[in-house]
Structures are given as C-alpha cells and as structure tokens.
Amino acid sequence: MIHRAPLRDEVYRQILESIHHGTPPAGSRVRDSDLAARLGVSRTPVREALLRLSREGVLEADMGRGFRVPPLAAGEIAETGQILGTLESLALDLTPDFPAERLQRLGAIDRKLEQTRGDAARCADLEDEWHGTLLEGCPNRRLLDLIVSLRQVLRRYLSAYLRDVARLALSTLPHQKIIDALRDGDRKAAHLVFAQQWRRGIEELQAWASR
Amino acid sequence: MIHRAPLRDEVYRQILESIHHGTPPAGSRVRDSDLAARLGVSRTPVREALLRLSREGVLEADMGRGFRVPPLAAGEIAETGQILGTLESLALDLTPDFPAERLQRLGAIDRKLEQTRGDAARCADLEDEWHGTLLEGCPNRRLLDLIVSLRQVLRRYLSAYLRDVARLALSTLPHQKIIDALRDGDRKAAHLVFAQQWRRGIEELQAWASR
DNA sequence: ATACAGCATATCGTATACAGAATACTCTAT
DNA sequence: ATAGAGTATTCTGTATACGATATGCTGTAT
Fold first, then answer.
1. Is the per-residue pLDDT at B62 higher than 80?
2. How close does chain B come to A119, measured CA to CA in Å?
3. Distance of alpha carbon B178 from alpha carbon B187, whole angstroms
4. Rounded distance between C-alpha atoms, residue A99 and residue A93, angstroms
C-alpha cells in the first residue's frame, strides 16, 4: 500500500523545524517566494503550509503583508500553557493503561535527555517525544492531534529559552516521579505531579520571557 | 482605518454555512472547481478554505482524491465533546466576572431560542451564540478561538440532529440555571451545572447518532 | 541632517495553466 | 445481461502568470 504525501506537509515540517532552530528569528518576515526557492517547490504548497502555521499560532499573517514570525510574548506562554496543560491532563486521564513497555521507553527517553548537552532543539525534541509517548495510549486521536499542534507554539519558547540560558539539560526528576506513580498504578499521584510540573514549567518559561 | 479581508475567509464562512445546512450531505465529495464556480472566485481561495476546514475536522482530505464531507460518526461526537467540554469549562473558570449586562443578553438569547421553531440551523446558531456570549469575558483569546473552531465539528451533528428529530426548540432550562448561579456569584454551582449539561448534551447526541 | 514626495521594486493575493492520477464510460467477450 | 479491459474525461495537486498594494530608495526641500 503506497501513498503519496502532499508537498505541503513536507514543506510544513521543514518550515517548522527551521523556526524551532530560530531561523528566521522572531520578529522577521517570512517570504513565501524565498522559501519556495530554497525548498525547490512552487509558492502554492509553501503558502498552504504558511497558512496552516498561522492558524496554529506559530506564524502571524496580515492581509497584504504576508507572514512573519511573531515576537516572543510572555502572554502567549500563559495562554497556550493553560490550554495545553488542561488538554494533556485530560489525555492522561483518558488513557486506559500504561504498560511496562511504555514506561520503559519513557525512561529511555529520559536517559537520552540527560545525555543531551548543548543542543537546545534536540533537547526540546526529546521533551516533546516524552510527552507524546506518555500520552500515546489515549484513545481520543483528535485530542492528541490538537495537543501536537498546540505544542508547536510552546516549543518555540522552549527552544529559545534553552538556547538563551544555555542550560545543558532539562531536569528529568519530575518525569521519573510520574513514571514511578504510574508503575505503582497511582493515577491520582501521577495526575497531580503532571499538573504541577506543567505549572512549574510555564512559570519558568514566563519568568524568563518577562526578562 | 480600512482593511481588506482575504477572500479565503469569506469563502470559508460560506462553505461552513452550507455544510451546516446539510448541503452537500454527509458522505459526498466536495469539488473545489464546483465551489469556485458557484462562488465566482478562483480555485485558490477555495482550496485554502477547504484545507483549513479539513484541519479543523469539518472535512476530510485524501491525497489525490480531494475533499469530502465525512459521514456522521458517533465516535466523533464523544471525541470532540470531551475536548470541547473541558475547554469550555476552562474558559468559564478563567472568566473573571459576569456583569449583569452579559447575563441579560444570555437571557435574551434564550428567549429567542424558545421562539425559534422549526429552523434547525438557526436554532444551532443561537445555541452557539449563547455559549459564545457566556464565555466572551475569558481573557485567553487563543482559547476562545480554539473553542470556536472545535465547535464547528459538533455543530454539524447538532444541526443534523435537530433537523432529524424535528425538535421544535432546545430546552433552555439548564441555561437558566447557569445564569441564576452566576447572578448569585456561585461559580461552583455554575461550573457544575455547565459540566453536567455538557455531558447530557453529548450523551443525547451520541444516543441519536448510534441509531 | 531630517522629512517627505515620487518613483522603482518586491511581494502579496488571486487567477490561470498544466501534468498526472482517479473516475466514468464504452465496448467486447462470456 | 454482466464483467472486465481499455479509453476518454474529470479533477486534483502543483506550477506559473498577473494585477494591485506595500515597501524601499532617491532626490529635494526645509
């Protein structure tokens, strides 16, 4: 069973990756013809990807003025964080079980996370992967899709933060606490730590973004 | 200060309205050239609108096969309902206050709702307006945007339901209970009734959709 | 030096063109 | 009459073209 993938999807991924690496930097314009030339495709799929990115909040679009990477705004962290924290908590609650195999994979990601030094984007990637793995058992696929797309917004801040403070690695301690609670079958505790970690993470990002 | 609006936005609205009225019916294909001809614009803005609608879950897009109105599926009601109920509850909690003026407007919408007979789409419109008005004070604009776009998915089911059972009007009783609780400053009670009403609504829709 | 008018250029939003894949159609063989 | 191969047509995804608006530059006046 073969299936062709739309160009716009690949273009979407490429642009997103660039933005996470900070190119172009926050505040700058994004010219569709530039991207089309760089990626070797026409403007059409590029614009489709840009339109999608601006619906998702990763880009801004002003009529007649094209697209731009919005400046980092502390307020956006809180807005998106509230939503994402709520939705990920919901996904956690909806997940029927956490088989040992999944918990092991979570531990493996944490170990990689601890070994990752210096590469902010890679670090943020792993953090994303951890959350994705934790929630992958949630049967509500639409919810998972929504979470993934919302996460792109926060990822921009997380990457910028990690680059800026040049922190060598994210702490995996709260991760481990959640894994332990789930292994013991203590959903309530897991939920609590998870929500608390979310709050802390958002506060940390916000404190940084507010200078 | 004048601002031109992108064609794709107007096209988006038109298509959405059609779908809510049940044309084209669930299951049928949507040809961009048809719409372009009918609306008197080119395929470009039409495709942009269709792409957006399929990202939002109102349409389906298969590569090489274009777009279609997905068949009504009971599972989708539960999936979207879980998300939307959670997010609207969040928005309710985040709203700092409910001035008397807003509560009066809610009452006015309810009265219109009671007088609306037979027009399913109009009825669903008013139900939407009620929720929109209830939550308009929430300072998290991104959350409100997200809620609006998610609501489009459920609206398709609500419209179809109202058309099918030919119910003359939605009950505004739970609405009134929420308004009363808010007037008394009893947020907890309001939250409770709200969440409960959500559950009941979803169950009702789902029971209908499952035949 | 600064601010502004006027022109040149770039870039956007939309329309159209084109190639290839999917669907519909026809004709034949059973 | 039905099923299936082969062809014609439609429609999609992507590329290109075009007109209009926004942006940037140059020169001049203050």
1. yes
2. 30
3. 9
4. 15
Measure the CA–CA gap between B203 and B208, rounded to whole angstroms.
9
Using CA atoms, how far residue B177 sits from A105, B131, B181, B187, in Å, is 48, 14, 6, 12
Q: Is the CB of A74 inside 8 Å of chain B's CB atoms? A: no
In this predicted structure, what is the pLDDT of residue B167? 64
With bands split at pLDDT 50, 70 and 90, how would you rate the model's confidence at A172?
confident
What is the average pLDDT value for chain A, to the nearest integer? 94
Largest distance between two CA atoms of chain A: 56
Backbone angles phi, psi at A63, to 5 degrees: -55, 125
B6 touches chain A (CB under 8 A): yes
Q: Which of B43, B55, B135 to mutate to test the interface with A (most CBs of A within 10 A)?
A: B55
Percent of chain B with pLDDT over 70: 97
A5 at B interface, C-beta within 8 A = yes
Q: Determine the 3-state secondary structure of B4 from DSSP.
A: coil
For the record, the structure tokens of A85 come out as 């924290």
Pairing of strands A60-62, B66-68: unpaired
- For the entire predicted model, the pTM comes to 0.95
How would residue A117 be classed by pLDDT, with cut points 50, 70 and 90? confident
Judged by DSSP in three states, B157 sits in: helix
Diameter of chain B by CA atoms?
56
Mean pLDDT over B112-126 rounds to 88
Task: Give the end-to-end CA distance of chain A in Å, rounded to a whole number.
Answer: 52
Interatomic CA distance for residues B81 and B58, integer angstroms: 14
CA-to-C1' span, A26 to C10 (A) = 22
3-state secondary structure at position A66: strand
CA of residue A34 relative to chain centroid, distance:
25
